[in-house]
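A favour, since you know our structure tokens better than I do. Just paste the record in under my message, thanks.
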Amino acid sequence: MIEILPLSDIQRVVAISRQLPEFHNPYPAEVYEQRLSNVPHLILVKRLDKQDVAFKVGYQREEDGSFYSWMGGVLPQARRKGVALSLALQQEAWAKTQGYLSIKFKTLNRHKKMLHFALGRGFDIIRVDAFPDRGKNRIWLQKDL
């Protein structure tokens, strides 16, 4: 089951993010509240067997018709079960009904699985912010809705 959460329940997202091995220093609730307050946003949480196992958070970052998919992750024990895909599809459907024209996000070059997932779902690389450590390159992607 996927739930749409109010910002007041952001601690559930923070709890999941603290269990993700890829997140070395996850954001506290205050950062989510700061980014999401006073802008259109969507907070999704996926539950399996009555446990929160994944989340996807996005918001309107720019005035260009895009919805920014900011943060998301799936707990290791829930991976390879279609969880990320179900969250992505719900986020895209919601964004489209809200009138957004595209979804944008950025990821680090070292997150190869995320890059493969995005490219396989029709996202295009639109920009790369390069750093001396190539694993830290920020790769920006976009998909038209």
